[in-house]
Structure formats: C-alpha cells, structure tokens
Amino acid sequence: MLKQSHAIYEELIHWRRDFHLHPELGFTEKRTSEIVATELEKLGYKVRRGVGRTGVVADFGDENGPTIAIRADMDALPILESTDREYASLNPGVMHACGHDSHTSMALGVAAILAKEKFPGRVRFLFQPSEEMGDEQGISGAPRMIEDGALDGVDLVIAQHVDPHEPVGTMAIIAGPASGGVDTWFANIFGLGGHGAHPHQTIDPFSILAHVIMALNSIVSRRLHPFQPAVVSIGTINGGFAQNVIPEKVEITGTFRYANPEIHPQIREEIRRAFEISRNLGGDYDLRFEYGGPPMINHQSAVELLRETGITLLGPENVQFMTPSLGAEDFGAFTEKVPGAMFTLGAMIAGDERLLHHPRFDIDERALPIGTAILADAALKFLRGASQ
To answer: What's the predicted TM-score (pTM) here?
Structure first.
C-alpha cells in the first residue's frame, strides 16, 4: 500500500498545493468541493454534492456489505498567511493553517487507490465542510452532514489529522476521549451606571464581574470531580465608554471544554451559578450557551484497526500513544453516532516546526503518501475482515 501511495505522490502534492492556493472558509468550500466531486466521479464513485451545505459524499462498492467511511475536512481559517511558499494562499486573510488541504488530498488519494481494488462491502468518503466554525446557529459541518444522511448505513468511520510536532513516518492514536467537547457562552452583567466619583450611588458591574470571575475560575478546581478533565475559560470582556463613568453593563464571553459528556450539564449549571452572584450583589445578568459539539471518543475496535495498520506499515516503534487534548474536533459528532477513531500523522518540517493555526503553518509533504497508505490499508482490512 505504501508503494501504491508513493506512486501517486506527485498527484497528492498537486491536489494539496492547489487547495492551499485557493483556501475557502467554512460552508463556502464551493471550488474545493466541486474539484473533489469531479475527481471522484472520474474514478467511478457515486457522488452526492451539497451534503451538509457544501460537503461531498462518495460511495464505491456493494451497499449490501459492510461500510467504512473515511472523513476529510476541507475548510480553511481566517488567517493571513505569512509564508514564502510558491503555493501560499491567493485569498488574502484566508489560509489552510490546520492541514485540511492535506487531509482532502490524502482522502482523494485513498479514493484513487481503492477504486482499483476488489473488496467486499462499500467504502464511503465524507468530504466535510466547516470543521473550524459553526453556521448562523453555531452548528459545524459534521452535524450538518449527519442531518443529511452522511452516516446512514455506515459501520465504522475513520479519519486523520496532520501533526506538525511529530516527525514524518510516525502516527499516534489512543482509545477513549481524544479531544474535548465544547460549548461557547455569552453573558451580560447588568448594574446601575453613574459617575465614577460617586460609586455608592451605582451598582458597579465591574465589581460584580470580579466576583463572577473568581467563581468561574473555581468551577473546575472546586465544583467538578478531580478526575474529570475540563476547562472554563474567559475569552472577552467588554464594558465602559469613559474613564470616569461606571457603565450600566459589562459583556463577557468564554468557552468550556470537557472530556466526559456526562458532566456537560453540570458545567452549564455551575456557570449559571457563578453568574447568580450578580443578583445577590444587586445587579442582574443574562446568559446564553452555544453548543459546539461532543468530545471525540475513539472506539477501541477502530483504534485497534488503525494501530495494527500503522504497525504493519511503519513499524511498532513509530506508532505512538496520542496525548489527549481539550482542543475541539467535530469528528466527535461522527463517533458519537457510529464506532470510529482519528489518528494523528507526523508531518513536522525538521528544523522548522510550524504550528497549527499559525500564519507560517506548513507540513513536510513526504507525510502525504504515508497518511494515504494508512487510511487505504485500514479500510481494506476492515472490509475484508468484517465480511468473513
């Protein structure tokens, strides 16, 4: 499989650099999805466009057998690229700074390889829009694709994510929670405004805010079980318009992350409890939550499949245990519905490590055929094993 992947190395690079040159934000990936759909149709896949708004679903094989899905996200980030690459973004302020261009190109490579293989069952490709952001309702691409039937009939779903911290030729995976569930919260604290020289005639929302911040920062350390990973973070505080005026209100927003879905409602309740301090101090508040998605749970069966594939292709010394993170990845919406797992693929540029979500982000493209081979080989292993 590595040999087959290296045989299409130049094609993988061509696709990746083309997508990198023409990045598109979430739910606007029209050019990218059209290229993907056209390439898949050339390979003989049954293609559905417009899944989850701008996503693409493609099937190949016998729908009466087992089905494995391979997911690749396509969207870019609102970042101004600052690299000197000849394939640097042509869309000012938009950049593939998270490797989704490489995920898309590797999935196309897998599709090209599997189109020439004979196997029982069916492979389905999920080219997903908008992993990085939600729509006007705060919902990202994975749930939108699920709403449109992307997982119907799927028995297992797998994916990968490039890792610029680890060397080419390595992969990492772990069973259980691998990334965090996420909510965003938006609040206002209301007081009674007045002159800064007469605070006794006001209800100062900044003073209330100080108490609320202390309560918010105590949720994880004092209200949650110590063995339940979570964070509650404040992202913005806005209030006031003159140095000598106590304002009527203060706006505050933030995020919380968690590894266990069972504590999700508890964290929401603790945040509400923190803002209740506003009323105890004579003020008031409003609070709104925006659900971002569940934790990404890697299922044991999918992890074993990917680990065994990695060991076969790369050697046991190059298959590592992933360090869990509370960073969000909406692939968890898929693994919430069907068994699945995501692994990370070493893609570090030696001597010039470039971080995710950074204007200088880039990968060592020698990782492309490796990720392609792992996904293709894992898919064949699953289909041939599941049909026996």
So the answer is: 0.94
